[in-house]
Amino acid sequence: MNISIGNDHAGTVYKFKILEFLKNKKINVTNHGTDSDTSVDYPDFVHPVAKDIINNISKYGILICGSANGVAMTANKYSDIRAGICWNNEIVSLIRLHNNANILCIPARFTNIKDVLEMVNTFLTTEFEGGRHQNRINKIKSC
Fold it and tell me: Which residue of the set 65, 105, 133, 143 is catalytic?
C-alpha cells in the first residue's frame, strides 16, 4: 500500500511520528510535506497528495495542519477526493465506513500523538460499508 502525506509547519512533528509508525508497518509513504516549522502555505502540500490519489500513485492520503480545515477545504476541491477532518478515533471510523474517505485530515493543535497514531491505524484498516452510503457518495460530485 502506498500513502501520501502532506503537512504545513504546524504538522511537522506529527508527520515525523506518523512516518515512523507507517515505516514500522512496512507501508510505503511519499512525503510531500515540509520538514520544518518555518511558516509555509498549506495548499502547496495538499495538491501533490490529492494528485497522487487521483493518479492512483497512492491509495490514501494524510494531511496535517493546525486545525485541519485549510487542508480539508483544499483537498475537497478535487472531485474524486473525500477528505475528512478527524479529532478522535470514532470519527475516523465513520469517515471510512460511511464516506469512503481517501484522505485523513488531522488537526495537530487539537489532538495528541498517541490518539493520532490510533486514528491513522483505524483509517488504514477500516473498510467502506458501501450500500446506501455509496448512493450518497455518488451525489457528491454533482455539486
Answer: 65
